[in-house]
Amino acid sequence: MRFKTLTIFFVAISFVAKAQITEQEIIIKDIIESVAENLPDDYDITELIEVLTRLKKHPINLNKTSPEELKTLVFLSPLQISNFFSYIKENGNFVDALELQSIDGFDINTVQNILPFVTLNAVTEYEKLTFTNIFSLGENDIIMRYAQTIQKQKGFTDLPGNRYLGSPERFQSRYRYHYGTIFSAAITLEKDAGEKFLGKPFDFLSGNIALFKLGKIKKIIVGDYTLQFGQGLTLWSGFSFGKGPDVTSVAKKDLGLRPYTSANEYSFLRGTSATINILRNIDFTPFISFRNLDASQDFDSDGNLVQATINQTGLHRTPSEIENQKSLKQQVFGGTIQYNNNDLGIGAIAYHSRYSNSFITQNAIYDRFSFVGNALTNVGIYYNYTYKNIYFFGEAGKGINSGLAYVSGALISLSPIVSAAVTYRSYDKDYHNFFNQGLAEASEAINEKGLYAGLNITPNKRWAFSIYADYFQSSWLKYRVDAPSNGNEILSQAIYTPSKTFKILARFKTENKQQNTDLDVPINFLDDVKKEGYRIEVSWQLNKKWSFQNRLEVSQYKKGDANKELGYLIYQDVDYSPMFSKITGNIRIAYFDTPSYNSRIYAYEDDVLYSFAFGMYNGKGFRSYLNLKYNLAKKLNLWARYATFIYKNVETVGTYLDEIQGNVKSEVKIQLRYQF
Length: 676
Fold this sequence. Notes:
This protein is mostly beta strands. 11% of the residues lie in helices and 48% in strands. It is built from eight helices and 33 strands. It has a 24-stranded antiparallel barrel. Strands 1-2 form a two-stranded parallel sheet. The chain starts with a helix and ends with a strand. The N terminus is likely disordered.
């Protein structure tokens, strides 16, 4: 009865009013949420937020941009980018940004998304570059952040065994310097909750200096950096997209060499790299990296240190985590060479990685084909080609003495209102690669074959539809899957936007997989696992100060012959952002009820600037948070956040060392930013 009442209340108030407000902020939020839900739970999406925020402040000049620059706009497909430059080639420079509507594949939603990030009037940094300007016009940005869970977690008590040795506070500090798009510097410092503070205030330190557009040297970076080439099968570090409501996201947009600015403690290379134009349309990117990684090690029968996996969490809180910290030396060196002209791009990659100790396989049967040894050489080739209204793309990667992986696909503009995507992938079970982020159903692009097909349909400026289907199969065993398996995933979505101040979204997603039975049997057989999700969301604006979002989401889970689980989440978001006001903020009030972890629901949450939150709603109870921003001075801003879960019918919250006595888990966060 309560569920029904809440549903009627939240949906009903959605249709009360509509007016004018900050459309650009909503666009950024929608973009982030659309890509974030297809990433791992703990993925740091700070880099994407930072790029979009920066582009909003310094828009791209449409008449002086490059394919690489447009690739930073995550909502543009490779085919749209190719069509953009074909349009300029045929028609000359833009005289009005609204000309974007004349480009093939640029529907009204794409144009609305891109407008906040582009301009025709920007003066390039070269036109203003002087030695004095480097200091007077350069932008400095300092952020300091403190966060802590209020309730005491079990790991911070005086346990006899494993426990957290540090303090419960989380600290992050970052400094960024930019001079236009030709010079940047970055430093990131972080201490996670549970890590020691005394003696070593910040457990993680990352930084780099980057120069761009130095004649033949297009880029050069010293420090921490990422490399992203092709479709992510051979060499891809840092942020990567997967399947999502925008079906064109299956074609990756490789950004090549980039400075690393995220607080994720694993996904980067450390050393130096440069992109050099060696011949017309041909670039060469050599690189070298030296890092010490975390790994849980043991001795083999000969007394040598060995490990089965690399720890990627970046957490160093307990004696065992500290013991494993930086215990494995990694060296990586190699290069890529690529040719690009208007319609054709071809590249080749070769690199070698070496580790101080050898990898061994684990005892589990599914791990039989994992990498063993201490040195690995990877090679790969990739391509993209635009023929009329079709963008072809693909990549093949191989580890020397190991398996092969390849992916090939096409984006097709069938008409001004319909675009399609189709992709086929095949990854051997013994394909070895430490920098592999190819399109896959599993977390790693190995042991999988799949066929993906999808459609984006935008019949007019009010309606937008998307649908995709993905079939996948694995020829070898996987974690909790003791036999070859297969599955499929289907997503469909409709968006209705009758005005700039009102939008309604409906989404359905179903996923069918196979997994070991939960029954106690001598030999595990596979049960069918079916997950379904239904979402209705309404976003609307009351006036220039107030905006609202309501969501109802239902999840279903069924495994084998067990009874079906039904969970749901319903929330109300309220945002207060008057122009020129010193104080702005937003609040969420949510109620959720999911029978188990299997039917959990994820939802994007607003947070302080550059902090990303994707909340997991699991169990039964209430969720609420309040974010406030106060402008202390023209270039000095303060953020504060309070967020809490109140669970029903439980005596503890969390598991193992994160366990809390009681039914409440709350967090506070304070952030200060100074720009000069």
